[in-house]
Design goal:
The chain has 550 residues and is α/β, with parallel strands linked by helices. The protein is built from 20 helices and 16 strands. The mean pLDDT is 89. Bound molecules: phosphoenolpyruvate and magnesium ion.
Length: 550
């Protein structure tokens, strides 16, 4: 029995066997082959097998994701048959006498570096394709079956060095008991996704502890305390089975709060909504009786398909609005950033401070207008609000309003209907926005406070870096002071002000946050809606001593 300490990323207890989802390859040591002719044949056989696999994947992907997306598998086939590629592998095997594995890895490394050195973003992105090809060939040469998350047969706890959001969206929730990762933090997007899906998760184990995991063991994931236990003895196993049962019972008990009010004991009403990443998350929103969608992170639509068309987006938004049947749905415009990137996005040195959110939208008005047109068209199917991310100035808000106005005029000219009442709000997630809240409140219809980024930018603590996770605290007085400034500005201007960052789901902060009168709503991952309702109903703000935050 061994206990490993990580970061609690998603509540719940999972008990099961591990499935290693390795999206990286193990380094191959240099080695010489006994016979270079046989070795070359081994490589050729692997290449033929890889081509067959890619052809099959291409065929399967075509009806699901369309020609543009599935073309990548054809490109991989072509890259593996390219003269430069083959000559390099041949030289290493036939002239230098290395094993096929080492030749494939060395060739892959060289080409990857070459692509990474190219300025053009599209060509640089080919480095990832070379990595994919290398991994596929090495898997075949070593007889290893490459794992895929979507095809998981049994129920497992997934272990991975990193879980990118694009990996996590493939997860079949019914098959995944829990998640444990070497890297990551509790507000990285993979953690947010795990919480949205209600999957217990421990992240940020660090390399040393992660190496101790193996797929023969039974593992316990304690998503409350951020610990995991390998090969627990009978006593510990029973203890955790009991805790698992208790948590299930607690969640079942929360069901009685469905249909109830969100009101503190002294009569303060709060709207409790839910955050979603994908249209299918609406099922959980409705099951947990949220009063609306407080944040739809639309970037996940773009992860499944780079730059989805206006029609694809329109259908996604319409489906959400229809299912919410007149309840408020706040859709955030595109915010691709660290950890949530398009395949062809140019890598920045410091992506958190880079060109994302409204900055990217204003620089790529075509992409922004496509999304806005889709939203406007969908607006007649429900109660839509639009939320702009990463705003730092009134100018940005005014520029965005200009583009939205142009889209409205275009649609009007085409006779396409849209709602006349679509509130336009901004995320307050930078200290700049909080400091300018009075000015911004004159132009915005509502505020939504993004405490995940507000905490990161205020405290200068990278939200994805688990190793400084103890410094990441949305309850820090500096962050609370900015939240208060924002809430006061909203109240003065008479506009609603919600909190949609992860702090909204933190029961230890609920009372402090609600003591700020301007805060009108909280939006949390769907599984937390009833828990927060219970918390809100237990609070008496009248009896509360002053917070001391000035
Ligand atoms: C936030 O920053 O708090 C937020 C809600 O947005 P995201 O987590 O997607 O950056
Ligand atoms: Mg944010």
């Amino acid at each position: 029995m061994k206990r490993l300490n990580g970061i609690a990323a998603s509540k719940g207890i999972a008990i099961g066997r591990l499935f290693f989802y390795e999206n990286s390859t193990m380094p191959v040591e240099p080695g010489y082959a006994q016979c270079s002719v046989t070795e070359w044949q081994r490589f050729e056989n692997a290449r033929i097998r890889a081509s067959e696999m890619l052809r099959d994947i291409h065929q399967q992907a075509l009806p699901q994701v369309g020609g543009n997306e599935s073309m990548i598998f054809e490109i991989h086939q072509m890259m593996m048959s390219d003269d430069d590629y083959l000559n390099s592998v041949r030289e290493l095997i036939q002239k230098s006498g290395f094993t096929a594995e080492y030749a494939v890895q060395q060739t892959g490394n060289r080409l990857e570096q070459m692509f990474l050195g190219i300025k053009d973003g599209y060509m640089r992105e080919r480095a990832a394709d070379i990595r994919d090809i290398t991994k596929r060939l090495l898997d075949i040469l070593s007889g290893r079956k490459p794992p895929t998350l979507s095809s998981l047969g049994n129920q497992f706890v997934i272990a991975a060095k990193d879980m990118m959001p694009s990996d996590t969206i493939c997860v079949n929730k019914k098959r995944v008991l829990g998640v444990i990762t070497q890297n990551g933090s509790c507000v990285s997007h993979a953690a947010i996704l795990a919480r949205t899906m209600g999957i217990p998760a421990v992240v940020g184990l660090g390399a040393e502890q992660y190496c101790q995991l193996n797929n023969k063991s039974i593992i316990i994931i304690d998503g409350f305390q951020g610990i995991s236990i390998i090969d627990p003895d009978e006593r510990v196993l029973n203890l955790y089975r009991e805790r698992q049962q208790e948590y299930r019972k607690y969640r079942a008990r929360l069901q009685r709060l469905k249909g109830g009010a969100n009101e503190t004991r002294d009569g303060r009403k709060v709207v409790i909504m839910a955050n979603i990443c994908r249209p299918e998350d609406i099922t959980e929103v409705l099951e947990n009786d949220a009063q609306g969608v407080g944040l739809f992170r639309t970037e996940y639509l773009y992860l499944e398909e780079d730059f989805p068309s206006e029609q694809i987006q329109f259908e996604a938004y319409r489906s959400i609005l229809e299912q919410m049947a007149g309840k408020s749905v706040i859709v955030r415009t595109l915010d691709m950033k660290a950890g949530v990137q398009l395949r062809n996005q140019i890598m920045e040195n410091n992506p958190a401070m880079g060109c994302h959110g409204i900055r990217a939208s204003l620089r790529k008005p075509q992409v922004f207008s496509t999304q806005i047109r889709a939203l406007l068209r969908a607006s007649v199917y429900g109660r839509l609000s639009i939320l702009l991310p990463m705003v730092i100035s009134v100018d940005e808000l005014m520029d965005a309003k200009g583009i939205i106005q142009d889209c409205k005029e275009e649609l009007r000219a085409q006779g396409v209907p849209f709602s006349n009442d679509i509130p336009l709000g901004i995320l307050i997630e930078t200290p700049a926005a909080a400091m300018m809240a009075n000015e911004l409140a004159k132009e915005a219809d509502f505020f939504s406070i993004g405490t995940n980024d507000l905490t990161q930018y205020t405290l200068a603590v990278d939200r994805t870096n688990g190793s400084i996770g103890s410094l990441y605290d949305p309850g820090n007085p500096a962050v609370l002071r900015l939240i208060r400034l924002t809430a006061e500005a909203a109240q003065k201007a008479g506009i609603p002000c919600g909190i949609c960052g992860e702090a909204a789901a933190n029961c230890n902060l609920t009372e402090t946050l609600l003591s700020m009168e301007g805060i009108t709503s909280l939006s949390v991952s769907p599984p937390f809606v009833l828990e927060i309702r219970e918390k809100v109903c237990s609070i008496d703000l009248g009896n509360r001593e002053k917070t001391g935050i000035s």
